[in-house]
Design a protein that fits this description.
The chain is an alpha/beta fold.
Protein backbone atom coordinates (compact mmCIF):
# COMPACT_ATOMS: atom_id res chain seq x y z
CA UNK A 1 0.00 0.00 0.00
CA UNK A 2 1.27 3.48 -0.89
CA UNK A 3 2.22 5.50 2.16
CA UNK A 4 -0.33 8.08 3.22
CA UNK A 5 2.37 9.99 5.05
CA UNK A 6 3.63 13.26 3.65
CA UNK A 7 7.15 13.24 2.36
CA UNK A 8 9.39 16.23 2.41
CA UNK A 9 12.23 16.38 -0.06
CA UNK A 10 14.45 19.30 0.70
CA UNK A 11 17.92 20.57 0.23
CA UNK A 12 19.71 23.60 1.43
CA UNK A 13 20.69 24.41 -2.13
CA UNK A 14 19.01 24.03 -5.47
CA UNK A 15 19.31 21.36 -8.14
CA UNK A 16 20.03 18.34 -5.96
CA UNK A 17 17.49 16.13 -7.68
CA UNK A 18 14.50 16.85 -5.44
CA UNK A 19 12.09 17.10 -8.36
CA UNK A 20 13.62 14.06 -10.03
CA UNK A 21 13.25 11.96 -6.86
CA UNK A 22 9.69 13.19 -6.23
CA UNK A 23 8.74 12.32 -9.82
CA UNK A 24 10.41 8.91 -9.52
CA UNK A 25 8.27 8.18 -6.47
CA UNK A 26 5.23 9.41 -8.38
CA UNK A 27 6.09 7.16 -11.31
CA UNK A 28 6.35 4.17 -8.97
CA UNK A 29 2.95 5.01 -7.47
CA UNK A 30 1.46 5.21 -10.99
CA UNK A 31 2.89 1.80 -11.86
CA UNK A 32 1.22 0.43 -8.72
CA UNK A 33 -2.14 1.79 -9.87
CA UNK A 34 -2.41 4.96 -7.78
CA UNK A 35 -3.49 8.33 -9.13
CA UNK A 36 -0.69 10.90 -9.10
CA UNK A 37 -0.61 14.60 -9.85
CA UNK A 38 2.54 16.72 -10.16
CA UNK A 39 2.08 20.45 -9.52
CA UNK A 40 4.51 23.32 -9.26
CA UNK A 41 3.16 25.20 -6.25
CA UNK A 42 3.70 28.68 -7.76
CA UNK A 43 1.61 27.74 -10.81
CA UNK A 44 -1.10 26.14 -8.68
CA UNK A 45 -1.32 29.30 -6.59
CA UNK A 46 -1.75 31.34 -9.80
CA UNK A 47 -4.46 28.97 -11.03
CA UNK A 48 -6.61 28.87 -7.87
CA UNK A 49 -7.94 32.47 -8.06
CA UNK A 50 -8.83 31.90 -11.73
CA UNK A 51 -10.66 28.70 -10.75
CA UNK A 52 -12.55 30.65 -8.08
CA UNK A 53 -13.55 33.24 -10.66
CA UNK A 54 -14.84 30.81 -13.26
CA UNK A 55 -16.51 28.42 -10.81
CA UNK A 56 -14.05 25.50 -11.09
CA UNK A 57 -12.59 25.89 -7.59
CA UNK A 58 -14.80 23.40 -5.70
CA UNK A 59 -14.33 20.74 -8.38
CA UNK A 60 -10.56 21.37 -8.58
CA UNK A 61 -10.15 21.13 -4.80
CA UNK A 62 -12.27 17.95 -4.69
CA UNK A 63 -10.11 16.43 -7.43
CA UNK A 64 -6.92 17.30 -5.55
CA UNK A 65 -8.37 15.82 -2.35
CA UNK A 66 -9.16 12.51 -4.09
CA UNK A 67 -5.79 12.09 -5.80
CA UNK A 68 -3.76 9.34 -4.11
CA UNK A 69 -0.44 11.23 -4.41
CA UNK A 70 0.01 14.95 -5.00
CA UNK A 71 3.52 16.25 -5.61
CA UNK A 72 3.92 19.93 -4.73
CA UNK A 73 7.18 21.10 -6.26
CA UNK A 74 9.04 24.33 -5.47
CA UNK A 75 7.51 25.01 -2.03
CA UNK A 76 8.45 28.46 -0.76
CA UNK A 77 9.85 29.99 -3.94
CA UNK A 78 7.39 32.88 -3.81
CA UNK A 79 5.88 34.59 -0.79
CA UNK A 80 2.41 33.41 0.15
CA UNK A 81 -0.41 35.93 0.20
CA UNK A 82 -3.24 35.63 2.72
CA UNK A 83 -5.36 33.95 0.02
CA UNK A 84 -2.53 31.54 -0.84
CA UNK A 85 -2.11 30.55 2.81
CA UNK A 86 -5.84 29.84 3.16
CA UNK A 87 -5.86 27.84 -0.10
CA UNK A 88 -2.84 25.76 0.94
CA UNK A 89 -4.41 25.10 4.34
CA UNK A 90 -7.68 24.06 2.71
CA UNK A 91 -5.86 21.77 0.28
CA UNK A 92 -3.88 20.06 3.05
CA UNK A 93 -6.95 19.81 5.28
CA UNK A 94 -8.98 18.22 2.47
CA UNK A 95 -6.18 15.73 1.76
CA UNK A 96 -5.49 14.87 5.41
CA UNK A 97 -5.88 11.12 5.89
CA UNK A 98 -6.93 10.61 2.25
CA UNK A 99 -3.67 10.49 0.33
CA UNK A 100 0.03 11.17 0.29
CA UNK A 101 1.64 14.50 -0.46
CA UNK A 102 5.25 15.03 -1.48
CA UNK A 103 6.67 18.52 -1.09
CA UNK A 104 9.97 19.67 -2.56
CA UNK A 105 11.71 22.83 -1.46
CA UNK A 106 15.05 24.56 -1.72
CA UNK A 107 14.59 25.77 1.85
CA UNK A 108 15.22 23.77 5.01
CA UNK A 109 12.04 22.89 6.90
CA UNK A 110 13.04 25.10 9.83
CA UNK A 111 12.66 28.15 7.52
CA UNK A 112 9.17 27.23 6.27
CA UNK A 113 7.38 29.03 9.08
CA UNK A 114 8.94 32.31 7.94
CA UNK A 115 8.27 31.54 4.26
CA UNK A 116 4.56 30.98 4.99
CA UNK A 117 4.25 34.27 6.85
CA UNK A 118 1.22 34.52 9.14
CA UNK A 119 2.20 32.67 12.36
CA UNK A 120 -1.24 31.22 13.07
CA UNK A 121 -1.78 29.88 9.55
CA UNK A 122 1.86 28.76 9.36
CA UNK A 123 1.33 26.66 12.49
CA UNK A 124 -1.84 25.11 11.03
CA UNK A 125 -0.26 24.44 7.62
CA UNK A 126 2.94 22.97 9.02
CA UNK A 127 1.02 20.84 11.52
CA UNK A 128 -0.85 19.20 8.63
CA UNK A 129 2.19 19.06 6.41
CA UNK A 130 4.83 17.78 8.80
CA UNK A 131 2.93 15.61 11.27
CA UNK A 132 3.94 12.01 10.69
CA UNK A 133 6.02 13.02 7.65
CA UNK A 134 9.18 11.50 6.27
CA UNK A 135 11.89 14.09 5.67
CA UNK A 136 14.65 13.53 3.14
CA UNK A 137 17.42 16.12 2.92
CA UNK A 138 19.50 15.93 -0.23
CA UNK A 139 23.06 17.18 -0.35
CA UNK A 140 25.80 17.17 -2.93
CA UNK A 141 26.52 18.64 -6.30
CA UNK A 142 23.83 19.94 -8.58
CA UNK A 143 22.34 17.24 -10.82
CA UNK A 144 22.08 19.77 -13.65
CA UNK A 145 25.77 20.54 -13.40
CA UNK A 146 26.71 16.86 -13.22
CA UNK A 147 24.64 16.01 -16.30
CA UNK A 148 25.40 19.14 -18.31
CA UNK A 149 26.91 18.62 -21.72
CA UNK A 150 29.97 20.76 -22.27
CA UNK A 151 30.06 22.10 -25.79
CA UNK A 152 33.40 23.34 -27.01
CA UNK A 153 34.19 24.67 -30.43
CA UNK A 154 30.68 24.31 -31.78
CA UNK A 155 30.69 25.69 -35.33
CA UNK A 156 28.28 28.54 -36.05
CA UNK A 157 25.51 27.77 -38.53
Amino acid sequence: MWSSRISNLGGHYHEHGKTWLACALGHKACREGYTVLYLRLPRLLQELPIAKGDGRYPKLMASLAKTALVILDDWGLAPLSDEHRRDVLELLEDRHGRGATIVTSQFPVDHWHDVIGDPTLADAILDRLLYNAYKITLRGDSMRKRHAVVKNDVPAT
